[in-house]
Amino acid sequence: WSGDWSSDVCSSDLVIMDKNKSITANFVKKQYKVKIDHSEGGTVEVKTIKQGTPTETDYNSGTILELTAIPDEGYEFQTFYYDDMPDDYRDKNPIQITITEPVSIYASFFKKKYSLKVNVEGNGKVNASEIKKGTTEYVDITHGSVWGLHAIPDDCSEFVEWTGDISGTEN
Description:
Order of helices and strands: EEEEEEEEEEEEE
Number of helices: 0
Helix content: under 10%
Radius of gyration: 31 Å
Shape: rod-shaped
Number of strands: 13
Mean pLDDT: 82
Low-confidence stretches: none
Structural class: mainly beta
Strand content: 35-45%
């Protein structure tokens, strides 16, 4: 309340009329804490779309936030998570949420995985560090892994070159 009358008692009080008075009921938006966290492999950019000037962690009720998950090199965005999040939001990026209560939001990232296929033309074999013997395709290799390949010709052959995604004659 402000003006010709004030009270700390409650939001509806009795006004004693003993002269002309001007009274204003003052309201402010509720503010809610918003905590945003993420796994290793990326960050979350927060953009206020509508309403309210946030403090460091508090946003006015009704504020619309747009959250964009930004993966680091070699990582992919997996999902956002917060309580009562619609299922169809989990894999979306960016997402928009309306602040109506305190909320903790988590963005999950994972390292990219790759497949390495080694083909042998002619008589010989390829040994590779971390690769199981007897197979030619190796899946789920994590981004940034270093693999050593070694071409081993049989007794009647010699190694000539690598072709494909790598090239060269060094073995």
